[in-house]
Design brief:
36% helix, Glutaredoxin, two-stranded antiparallel sheet
Length: 176
């Protein structure tokens, strides 16, 4: 009986793992490759209702961040996410996917209430979005164009997101 319980815990555990600093700095081989059609995943809104991630993202360009309240890299990345929201919020849907590792939806709600980010947070209770986007750590950011394809995947606190979003939108600035 103990083996069955242990197997269930191992199978149910999300795939979030620490990433070496080198991979965080370079974004080496994490997530889906550019040109991939953005996959859907079942997530929850912060009221606990099941929602489709692609419905939350909508049909236009989007930025999806895989986030956790305990993630120091996410905290360092926050100014870039805020800058994208402030500058492009009317043209790009920003969505934070809160992973279910060491945090509850209640903890995520408290963070949103305190910080009022101005963009949508969803909770990946079952790890579906993590698996669909191959987001093996937090602070992964995926840019999706208006055609629903992955433009880029980055990781860590310095991703040059404003430049990357400008390039995705065709605003004439290449990604940094």
């Amino acid at each position: 009986m103990k083996k069955a319980v242990l197997a269930a815990v191992v199978i149910a555990a999300p795939l979030i793992v620490p990433v070496p600093a080198v991979a965080q700095e370079t974004g080496a081989e994490l997530g889906l490759p550019p040109g991939t059609t953005a996959p859907d995943a079942q997530v929850e809104d912060l009221e606990g209702n099941a929602v489709s991630l692609l419905e939350v993202v909508g049909g236009g360009p989007a930025l999806i961040e895989f986030w956790a309240s305990w993630c120091e890299q996410c905290e360092l990345l926050q100014p870039e996410i805020d800058a994208v929201q402030e500058r492009f919020g009317a043209r790009v849907k920003v969505v934070a996917v809160a992973v279910a590792v060491s945090q509850s939806v209640r903890r995520v709600r408290r963070h949103v209430d305190r910080h009022e980010p101005g963009y949508t947070f969803v909770y990946d209770a079952k790890g579906e979005a993590v698996r669909a986007y191959e987001a093996l750590t937090t602070s992964i950011v995926v840019l999706i164009d208006g055609e629903g394809r992955v433009v880029s995947t980055g990781v860590g606190p310095k991703q040059g997101l404003v430049d990357a979003v400008e390039a995705m939108l065709g605003d004439g600035v290449s990604p940094g």
